[in-house]
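Q: I have 196 residues here and want to know how they pack in 3D. Can you give me a structure?
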Amino acid sequence: MPQLLSDIQLDALRELSNIGSGTAATSLSSLVGMPVDVSVPNAIALPLADAVDRAGPAEAEVTAVALPVFGEFDALVLIVMNQPTVDTVCELLGVPTDDEMAASALGEVGNILGGAYLGALATMLGGTVEPRPPELVRDMLGAILASALLASGEDNLALLLESTLRVNGRECSPSFMFVPSAGGLGDILSRLGLGA
């Protein structure tokens, strides 16, 4: 697949990912009352259909927190948690995974992490973005991401931020996917002075 963005543009997105991951780790640490280590993150911009493939097996059962974003640009933020991450988060918060409180706890974690990334984005862009209330979805990964694909348009790019969070030696690594409205990623790069 040809490279969609220049090295300089990808470096800027990696810096966004680095700031967002650090903020997310600090927020998660405050929530669980334990230190959170974060790996050097990776930022990848892909057509959404390819990002779907990159995120994992389409048939995998996952929990996702969807945050619609409004403000100076519209977008959808998806925080995707596989079952081991769900188990770790629930255990750290003292909530059984099959308890009705688990959905509330996971939604709040997704809200906090998504807000951390969005805050980093707003800081870098010098603008304002406003997340709406989170929606928790449990389904196959392919079905969740197909809904995002339909909402954004076939030709859209998604920004996938990958980093590993470790809490007390245990991996707790939700995937962060930022799906701007059509042309939104180009607008972000333009604001960073890196437009095509």
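Q: Anything worth noting?
A: Residues 81 and 159 are 17 Å apart (CA to CA). The chain has a mean pLDDT of 78.
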